[in-house]
Specification:
34% helix, homodimer, globular, 8-stranded parallel beta barrel, 665 residues
Chain lengths: 665, 665
């Protein structure tokens, strides 16, 4: 039975699946072969498209021999493969898959191609995701947190999943979300915050039915549901005296709890755990290792094919700022590298892409590539906690692509060596535009596509997103619309970097909410996030020779590249070295002049992007245009504030005037 | 009928009225002459004391001629005077008053004197308060504010008056509070926050009964109740289209609302208003002056003898930090000085003692002394928002005394020229020790006594507080106890100044909650609170010659004294001037070395005070001792944090090493 396409509530933006994106398929005659739930999802899609655009769809070849199908979607088996083969011959486009998920992805592949899918000839081409797990972690709270709100680090309204203290009753929006995710290749969602508070802890046990309801509507889109749990669950929920991972009672408790979860959700994905991190409970309390902790949950999940995602975000968040020997950047490697080989096969170590915390510029974490005998997932942050909080345009595709193309050992790129997959912290909420800033949708889409194919050129992915979302072909001036969108998005990450954090310095943000500048905001804090600016220079010496030794956590060639200011890339120089303001960069500029110049440039680039956007009025849906235009006002204000505070701060410290004589306060 | 002494709930500290404080009176034979409610309050006090200590009390001379009274308390009339005459002749101590309040104050005068009241001869001595209004403003919210909590800037638990969204039902604690206030001379209390939020606005109208209940229990202690109101009340509560002070409908609304208030509270004190300040509504919205605004309410109150307290805390809180010409310190004078003479006789302009906001060191506001034809009240802050938040010992007596002794025109001290009285923001809550930190009780007591007699030596007042509160005479070592208390309290304000803000620089605090250091916390903010530190120097040039002109707001001699660094007192130097780090102070030290030295000294002084306090164990009530000891741990930690952050900040900026080679991070 065909699954109807979800109906979007009034006023909700269709994102990258507007009806117009289905025109090419909807005008064709399609044959769908095979059966099973995901086939019905595809059937529903094609049926809806044909109803709108006049095509036809069959579930079996029409009797007789005369029928020529434009498109044949065929499921040939029932395995778990997500791969499909796509080709075109003699005027017939085909998608063949051995597993239902493959058929679904193949269908959306055809949608993405649009009319191109129905032109010329195309030899059969096999498509398969490079990374098996392509996951979104939602930091959504069930009960509104007094400080962090409904969605921790959420900038897009409330939670899609939870409202008024429980799972939403009307799940149409969640279904539509699942559909969007399927269309960009995401196959796993964790539905609650990794900081598991009191209320949320109970989702694991007597409130698992609410999770099951969400899983039910995500399943038809090939998405498995995961749950964040507290390591203290046996104590908090089970009333046990301990949560010691080696305790038999604890192991039995987790086994039984997990059994009950699978009773409710047969294809449950597994657990996500933040342990011994920023105050969360963990195995350290019992003198056990993080491998002990992860393996405890892995053992409980193993009989059912589930996975535990164990976050490597473990560091001392009560550091003394006076202590320059402790380096938070070292922490993940120091904690986890020695455990390589000790994790169960169904335990995934989830590592943030950088060693700190989603700053606009960090080196790739040295832990990535250092754990050959561990399933490791790379975690990025689609929600723009440190990159403008969806009030600023900051398309993160190029940053993620840099991470995925980075070769920790000089040979194999990260994107090909992360067997645990790619995970993003979601940027989605119940905002009508899904992501608050409509252009932030591009981050979600790009994430999914890069997870599928980490070596893709992110600009090509963006172009794909533009074609789907804005259907420029239907506009009065397709070339200008497309060029305009690329103009405001392609370089937006580097623009954001320019007007905020220079040369790899991070955390110059307002404490707490992390929006807007505060150069010394974290300088004397316990969070391990310092820049050590004084009147002579700025930056953290993380060299092995004279600093914290962090640079030596890398394999060659990076340990050597980062060790010396002579070879360290400019954009990471202050991350690895404390440099004098008059040090001359590879670019030929001094550090201080680089700071001034990039900050003036960054603001100019925002002002220009704002103008470009204004010029697109009439080519873009008015509501979407208005929302973006409004946010550009804030972005420009914010960029000026960043520029002026950063420049003033470093001018007051260094005393060096701007070579161009511009106004610094 | 005698009013019984309020019974303190279990565990509540008696503060400066422990039973032992009444021993001298309670062992005597007392005659009370006169009648009326306050006489019954006094009678209840003496009765209770005698019941405990074996004395006797009569309400009329015993028949016959033989009786010798030790103490005669006589009310000779029924006027509104608070004065009394006290003397001792032929073994008889007398207190005579023409008004009931005078008798009450005279009685507590005798209590304060203890056995001294009953020794030797004492010629009749007239006592009258120098300031007629001695008021506490409670920044208590009725509904818990999402950010500010139950008590805004409160560090002593919840509100004494309000709990669970309404006036407390059990008012024993409020009665006990009124008694404590009477014993130190306070005669007015505003029962709600000057930031009048939605819920609190309604106290003026249909919830006035709750205010009346509080007034009923404060009245027997000579205290009039005041209410903070919103200037927008006619709109918010009355549904009028405007709150324009010159609108007839608005005037009629206030007249009627006020009439109803006095129906409920016959001796209602009046209104407190924060208008056009930090976002509060005010007359500016209608193009009217603050005199228009204040006079509107004054007119409504006038028929009943009420007063409006109109706060002068008006400034631009959305200032651009880049703009160095706008100076928040100028704001109160600029707004209000031109209005001198325009305020109604029953309008009191309530002026913060300093031009900014209760920093540990500010000059006296130039507005004080600049409004000869205006009733002006001086506002100080007993709640320690910027002075350690009742986790640090900071006895403010010396600071307040400096303010009260300051002679704006070089002749008449503030304490003799504030016809509107003295107002303190209360530091009291429902904490068992009233003020969180038991030693912060001294601030409340000192405030009341200085309001009565502004030229008193604050150390004498403190000594009085010690004698009442700790009754050293009953301890094992009276001299050591008294000396110890003086050691930890007398210099605590200067100690706090030492380890926090040097030379008149303010606002180097954590934004929002204002606890702990953040040197640049307000430097790039819209709040008008800057220090302008750069690599060469620090401070704000407020001179007339080259700065904001603030110094010229003072009359002579101060305009001249403050204008030049050569004559400006060291402790205010950076308030008035931007000085190089190597500038030599009158003390002979450079600015930078002064910063280092005072910060090291401040921490050493806290460490020493902590030791002194520890040594008083056994001489002090154990619960009180434990609470203070615990807070000293936090104070010492906090003082070190202040020292290290301030010193590091200025070392990193200046590059000047400490002359003594101490460790700076």
């Amino acid at each position: 039975m065909s699954l109807p396409v979800p109906v979007l509530p009034d006023g909700v933006d269709p994102a990258w699946l507007p009806p117009a994106a289905f025109r090419a398929v909807g005008t064709r005659h399609t044959l769908i072969l095979g059966s099973g739930p995901l086939v019905e999802t595809v059937h529903g899609e094609v049926t809806e498209a044909c109803a709108r655009f006049g095509g036809r769809v069959d579930r079996a070849p029409e009797p007789g021999t005369g029928t020529t199908y434009d498109l044949v979607l065929e499921l040939t088996g029932g395995d778990g493969s997500e791969a499909f083969t796509h080709g075109r011959e003699s005027g017939r486009t085909t998608v063949t898959a051995s597993g239902p998920a493959g058929l679904l992805y193949g269908f959306f592949h055809v949608v993405r191609l649009g009319e191109d899918a129905f032109r010329g000839e195309r030899p059969p081409e096999a498509h398969r995701p490079v990374l098996a797990l392509r996951m979104l972690d939602h930091w959504d709270n069930v009960a509104v947190h007094p400080v962090m709100g409904q969605v921790e680090r959420g900038y897009a309204g409330g939670s899609l999943f939870w409202a008024e203290g429980r799972a939403r009753g009307d799940l149409d929006r969640v279904r539509a979300y699942g559909r969007l995710l399927a269309a960009c290749g995401i196959n796993a969602v964790a539905v609650n915050n990794v900081n598991v508070h009191e209320t949320e802890a109970h989702l694991l046990t007597h409130r698992i039915g609410e999770v099951a309801a969400l899983a039910d509507v995500l399943r038809p889109y090939g998405i498995r549901t995961h749950l964040s749990v507290t390591f203290a669950a046996p104590v908090v929920l089970g009333g046990l005296p301990t949560a010691d991972p080696l305790d038999e009672g604890v192991r039995a408790w987790w086994a039984e709890a997990t059994r009950r979860v699978y009773e409710e959700i047969e294809d449950f994905g597994g657990y996500v755990v933040k342990a011994d991190s920023e105050g969360r409970p963990g195995p350290f309390a019992y003198g056990r290792s993080h491998a002990d902790g992860a393996n405890l949950l892995a053992a409980a999940l193993e009989p059912y094919g589930g996975t535990v995602h164990w976050r490597a975000f473990v560091y001392d968040h009560r550091q003394d700022w006076r202590d320059r020997t402790t380096d938070r950047a070292r922490a993940a490697y120091d904690h986890f590298a020695p455990l390589d080989g000790e994790f169960a096969p169904n335990a995934v170590l989830q590592v943030k892409h950088g060693p700190l915390d989603f700053q606009v510029r960090e080196p790739v974490s040295p832990l990535i590539g250092a754990m050959e005998r561990t399933r490791l997932a790379v975690e990025v942050q689609a929600t723009q906690e440190y990159t403008g909080q969806q009030r600023h345009v900051c398309w993160l595709g190029p940053m993620w692509s840099e991470v995925l193309r980075f070769r920790p050992d000089g040979r194999v790129p990260v994107g090909a060596s992360a067997p645990g997959g790619l995970v993003a912290v979601s940027n989605v909420g119940d905002d009508p535009f899904w992501t608050g800033h409509p252009l932030a949708q591009a981050n979600l889409y790009t994430f999914g596509r890069l997870a599928w194919r980490p070596d893709a050129d992110p600009v090509d992915v963006l172009d794909e997103w533009i074609r789907l979302t804005f259907t420029p072909g239907a506009s009065a001036d397709p070339a200008r619309l497309t060029a305009g969108l690329h103009a405001v998005l392609d370089g937006s990450w580097r623009t954001y970097e320019k007007y905020t954090a220079p040369l790899g310095v991070g955390f110059m943000v307002q404490p707490g909410h992390h929006y807007g500048p505060s150069v010394d905001g974290y300088e004397y804090s316990p969070w391990g996030t310092y820049h050590f600016a004084d009147r002579d220079g700025v930056g953290v010496d993380r060299s092995a020779a004279t600093g914290t030794g962090y640079a030596a956590q890398y394999a060659k060639p990076w340990a050597e590249v980062y060790e010396s200011p002579a070879t360290c890339p400019d954009e990471l120089l202050l991350f690895f070295h404390h440099m004098a303001y008059d040090h001359v960069l590879h670019s030929g500029k001094t550090v201080i002049q680089h700071i001034y110049d990039t900050h003036f440039e960054g603001v100019a680039e925002v002002a220009e992007a704002r103008e470009v956007w204004a010029s697109l009025a009439g080519l873009v849906d008015p509501a979407r245009h208005a929302r973006v235009a409004e946010r550009y006002e804030e972005q420009l204000r914010g960029a000026r504030e960043w520029r002026d505070q950063i420049n003033s701060y470093f001018f007051r410290k260094s005393g060096v005037p701007d070579a161009q004589g511009r106004r610094i306060h």
